[in-house]
Amino acid sequence: NKSLTYSISTAITVLVIACPCALGLATPVALLVASGRGALRGIVIRHPRVLEASQSIDTVVLDKTGTLTDGAMKVQQASIPVSAQKVLGLSFASILTEKNVLSSALALESQSDHPVSQAITSYCISRSADQLPVTEFTQTPGVGVAGRVRIGDKSPVVIIGSPDSVAHSCVPFDPQIQQAIRDAQAHSHAVSVLAWDGVAIAVFAAGDVIKADAAATITALHNQSIDVWLLTGDNPEAAAQVGALVGINSDRIIASAKPEDKLSKVSALQSEGKHVLMVGDGINDAAALAQADLSIAMGTGTDTAIATADITIMRPQLMSIVDSLALSKRTLRTIKVNLGWAFAYNAIGIPIAAMGLMSPMYAAAAMAMSSLFVVTNSLRIK
Predict the structure, then answer these.
(1) Average confidence score pLDDT of the chain
(2) Closest CA relative to residue 144, chosen from 156, 158, 159, 132
(3) Residue 51: which of 62, 63, 43, 41 has the closest Cα?
(4) Confidence of residue 1 (pLDDT cuts 50, 70, 90)
């Protein structure tokens, strides 16, 4: 009887010790705590795979507008030269007023969520522009918007976009239009040209503000031996000025980049053996965000970028990028410690239990302590 009792006691002890509670809790509890800690700091982790990917990141690719800058752009200058309007001919004379020009811009830009479009929309509304009907509306990421706008008895095809993209669909720019573009670029403003039926008639120059912690964030990334690139659709002058202010070398800046250019650059860096983190906020960043080894979207950006990215930052501070990488690394380190402890507990405890050197009561206490250790260790994630 004593032998049977001893055998049953030993068997129960082995079963209690072998219960993989700690192993089962090691990963999900750490992920749960990390998600909660991140949410409190405005960091939303969408995919668990980011924890592993964060360990090898050695290159960060940044968008400019809405990422390095606040994205709250304002139109600094709007030029509507009379000489350019005359090119359209007498048939447009009756509707070629400043209000109608601004109303045509409002009709298109109000349907786009790009920061420059929103700035132009706000500017047109402040000048009492009307909301005109639009048909055949199209938006090409990195290029601009177009559509047929009803203005009085006319329905011109209206295009708004970067000077280079609009130039492909227009007659040569009027000298005053060219001068307005040069002036805007000299002040490192984002330039948008508006054209009616293939004739450029207005130039909008929008300016942005660099985020207060942008330079500190770049410095922190450099201190971690992370190479930083700036890819932007803005003109080279604006990109160079921003790069100089935040500490990005000129040979790490690519300006006038279209969505496919950003995608190609990320792919090229990966082909060189780099592990790339892409940070962006716009629809023109979506392809590059999807291609990168790890992606972060700014919460103030477009739904497309947010849906594509692995991590979304809800705070305006750019330093959240560094915080996100640090949180991911700490979480993965915690998971490894949890798993190591749980495995060691089972590896040591099972032989002891099998030799009958432990009672079921002590085995239950040991199992509870093991699970408690895993949970407590996970709660240390900050």
Answers:
(1) 86
(2) 159
(3) 43
(4) low
Tens digit of each residue's pLDDT (9 = 90 or more) over 103-113 = 999 999 999 88
Cβ partners under 8 Å of residue 178, min gap 6:
none
Q: For 252-283, how does the pLDDT look when each residue is reduced to its tens digit (9 = 90+)? A: 999 988 889 999 999 999 999 999 999 988 77
DSSP β-ladder status, 134-140 and 74-79:
unpaired
CB 299 within 8 A of CB 42: yes
From CA 300, how far away is CA 280, in angstroms rounded? 10
Catalytic residue chosen out of the listed positions 63, 197, 213, 293 = 63
Of all residues in the chain, what percent are helix, strand and coil, respectively (each to 5)?
55, 20, 30
Q: Which two tokens stand for residue 142?
A: 């990195």
Q: How far apart are CA 236 and CA 214, in angstroms?
A: 19
User: Of all residues in the chain, what percent carry a pLDDT higher than 70?
Assistant: 99
Of 61, 35, 24, 47, nearest to 330 by C-alpha is: 35
**Number of C-beta neighbours around residue 7 at 10 A:** 11
Nearest Cα residue to 142 out of 66, 256, 237, 254: 256
For tokens 């380190």, the residue is: 333
> In this structure, are residues 221 and 60 in contact, taking their beta carbons and an 8 Å threshold?
yes
Residue whose pair of structure tokens reads 């000048």 in the numeric block: 127
User: Looking at residue 2, what is its pLDDT?
Assistant: 58
pLDDT of residue 292: 93
Q: How far apart are CA 272 and CA 278, in angstroms?
A: 16
* 363 within 8 A of 13, measured Cβ to Cβ: yes
pLDDT level of residue 239 (50, 70, 90 thresholds): confident
Strand partners, 192: 204
What is the DSSP code string of 285-329? GHHHHHHSSEEEEETTS-HHHHHH-SEEE-SS-TTHHHHHHHHHH
Answer yes or no: are the C-beta atoms of 49 and 310 closer than 8 Å. Answer: yes
| Contacts of 162-169 spanning 24+ positions with Cβ under 8 A | 162/191, 162/192, 162/193, 162/233, 162/256, 163/191, 163/193, 164/256, 165/140, 166/193, 166/194, 166/195, 166/200, 167/193, 167/200, 169/195, 169/198
Residue 157 tokens read as 């095809």
Distance of CA 324 to the CA centre of its chain: 13
Amino acid at site 68: L
> 63 an active-site residue?
yes
